[in-house]
Amino acid sequence: MSKNIDERGYTNPEVLVSTAWVAEHLNDPGIRVAESNEDPLLYSSNHIPGAVEIDWTRDLNDPIRRDYLGRAAFENLMRRVGAARDTTIVLYGDKNNWWAAYAYWLLQLFGHTNAKIMDGGRIKWVQEGRPMAKTVPRYPSTNYQAPERDDNHFRAFRQQTLEHCESKRPLIDVRSPEEYRGERLHMPDYPNEGALRGGHIPGAASIPWGRAVNAEDGTFKEASELRKIYTEENHLRPDDDIIAYCRIGERSSHTWFVLRYLLGFSKVRNYDGSWTEWGNLVGVPIENPSAVSRNEAAA
Amino acid sequence: MKRLPDKLDQLISLLESMEREDRIQMLIDVAERFQPVPARIAQRPFPAERRVPGCESEAYVWSEPRPEGTLVYHFAVENPQGISAMALAEILRDSLSGAPLPEVAAVPADIIYRIFGRELSMGKSLGLMGIVNMVRAAAQQQMKSAAAR
Known about the structure:
A: five-stranded parallel beta sheet; 12 helices; B: Sufe protein. Chain: A; two-stranded antiparallel ribbon
């Protein structure tokens, strides 16, 4: 069983709340609980009573370009879910909070720092037998005013990632080891997974996102265990300039959250273009250990 | 455009005619009818070769020949949060089992967008398309085996 959040040694324990804390604050008007999932049916099937849905694709992405919503659309979203600038937004969702962490990351791009993630996500709430509801709540609209989105501190673009790679600064590939090694995961004759090339960005360390969570209940590991993974095994330092990536940026936002908040690393960015961009770019360097071994075998 | 098997075609046409909220509710109802693979076909731990590549809902696909040469399709979805995968599995089981193999083999993987809408994430799309592709592959394999006999 996981320790209480404030006993786990995190640098910023206030960004995480337990399922019990959420249960105690369901009727708190200063708190808006929001579910963010990969599965589009999950929220509608049931959700934490009073929770609103923030859908990654419909609500947070630009419908045309591959980019996130702009200031006006973000304001409309916050107004629609009844959140004011000082509302505490508590995010949770499926997949060990991948999408909740992604939404949390996006909130930070708009400076909504008053946000938290529910430790263990939706599945922990369900497994504890806590109440679920089907009713979609309606809250009075607010006059939310947001600043322009600031991509400078927490977001990395491809050119920045290329320069990061060339200057041999730390990169973390949080995908599975098979994806990292560039092995084909799909069956013969099946389409590839959104990228023309497999492998990883040269110099990236393979630290799958899932190492940061406890398998039994999906909660985050305590700080000493996280430090073992990131600082002892992989020699990352809290003042390193780090870029994390995965396939589209959702799993790496989970690792970004761990490093930036739970361990207090000062400069961590999420490369949301991730492998679906890098693996399709012309001319960028790629390391592909499985291709190397295949070539050696053929020689 | 190649015709979809009748039952699948009718269901998709119905889903496409619905408002988003109604479509989602119908898909949730379908997911609630999902029955995992019977024990006579497979038991845990399920073999890796039956697992749908890239599907994070941990879906598995099996096929069972019927006397007249078509197939019955069976599924498992090990992630209890994989409601969309359960809905798709139930739709495919119900509408493709017993359908002519050439029609099943030609079902395009992008029917998932007609079923769920265009708002699927890339990861979810790939996983759901993987389920369709596994069913298509089973039909193709059965056709090859029949031709070789």
